[in-house]
Structure formats: C-alpha cells, structure tokens
Amino acid sequence: MKVLVTGGVRSGKSFHAESLLVAEPHVTYVAPGPQADVDADPEWAARVAVHRARRPDHWGTIETHDLAGALRASDGAVLIDCLGTWLTSVIDELDGWDQLRDDWEPVLLDRLAETAAAISEHRGTVVAVTNEVGMSVVPEHRSGRVFRDLLGVVNQRIAQECDDVLLVVAGRALRL
C-alpha cells in the first residue's frame, strides 16, 4: 500500500500518517529535512521533539536527502515526513533559490522521478507526508512561488504512485 497524506500546516497530517503504521512490526521513518534548521530554530526543534516522542521505540529513523536510496535500503514500512522539507533541502543543495530554474530544475525532476520509482518498487507500505500549499494566496517573494509551484509538481508525481491520497483538515482525513 502506498499513501500520500497532505494537508496544511498543523492540520494533523503527520499524526494521521503515523497512525496508519501503528500495526506494522517495523517502520523506517525518513526525515529528509536539514538538521541544521532544527538546530537553529528552537520552535522547530520543539515540534520535531514532539514528533520523535510519538514514535514507537521499534521505529528506526534515517535523516537523509536521498529519499530513493532510503526507500531502497529499507525493509518493511516506510514513513517519509515530509516531501516539503525534502524539496527545500534539494533546492538548497542545488542553490536554486537565487539561480534560474532552467539551470537546476532538471536535476530536481530527475531526483523526483528516482524517488517516485523507488516508492513504486518498494515492497512494503509507504506513507509520504506533504504540505498542501496551493490553496492560498500567491506568495509575494520569488522563493515562495518557486517552492509552491514545485511542491505542486512533487505532490502530483508522488500521488501518481500511490493507491490512496488523503487530505487532512482539522485532524480529519478526507479520501481524495
């Protein structure tokens, strides 16, 4: 089973995604966001600590930007939380915030295709969490528009590999 769980910030999407895997004997939790962001921001660090405390002891954790590699190296269920932090880390790595998209977007799209293939090929359950950012105002700054537009591309591509897509609003999951 492959599931994409999307929703707004603080909608309950991570909690819901975790609840889909409670019966699994082994879960690999893939955290693709940059650890430096956690270390530098006390509020973000507190939110990460809440997520960590919720996870059962038998869940393993991998912190990596290589989602395809993490999926291929993992047995059993995998929880990716979240695709938005993965996208941010890839754009950071490619120095994309200040460069022309044409110069780095093909590399991003290759990584996305590799990740989608790894999700499709994975024999266990995969639950991917992502942010839904396309239902708001157009961001004022270029970086916000780039992120919003590309996360929409990421979400659509990963949804193609999933058996189910859930939208979480106010802690309630709606099947799309």
TrEMBL record:
**Matching CDD domains:** CobU (cd00544)
The task this protein performs is described as: Catalyzes ATP-dependent phosphorylation of adenosylcobinamide and addition of GMP to adenosylcobinamide phosphate.
Give the family this protein belongs to, as stated in its UniProt record.
Answer: Belongs to the CobU/CobP family.
Q: What molecular function does GO assign, one term?
A: adenosylcobinamide kinase activity
Q: In which pathway does it act?
A: Cofactor biosynthesis; adenosylcobalamin biosynthesis; adenosylcobalamin from cob(II)yrinate a,c-diamide: step 5/7; Cofactor biosynthesis; adenosylcobalamin biosynthesis; adenosylcobalamin from cob(II)yrinate a,c-diamide: step 6/7
The protein's matches in InterPro entries, at most eight in alphabetical order, are given as: CobU/CobP, P-loop_NTPase
Q: List the keywords (alphabetical).
A: ATP-binding, Cobalamin biosynthesis, GTP-binding, Kinase, Nucleotide-binding, Nucleotidyltransferase, Transferase
**Name of the protein in question:** Adenosylcobinamide kinase
Q: What positions does the entry give for GTP binding? A: 7-14, 31-33, 52-55, 63, 81
Gene Ontology terms: biological process: cobalamin biosynthetic process
**Has keyword Nucleotide-binding?**
yes
**Catalytic residues in the record:** H51 (gmp-histidine intermediate)
Instruction: Provide the E.C. number(s) assigned to this enzyme.
Output: 2.7.1.156, 2.7.7.62
Recorded superkingdom: Bacteria
Catalyzed chemical reaction(s): adenosylcob(III)inamide + GTP = adenosylcob(III)inamide phosphate + GDP + H(+); adenosylcob(III)inamide phosphate + GTP + H(+) = adenosylcob(III)inamide-GDP + diphosphate; adenosylcob(III)inamide + ATP = adenosylcob(III)inamide phosphate + ADP + H(+)
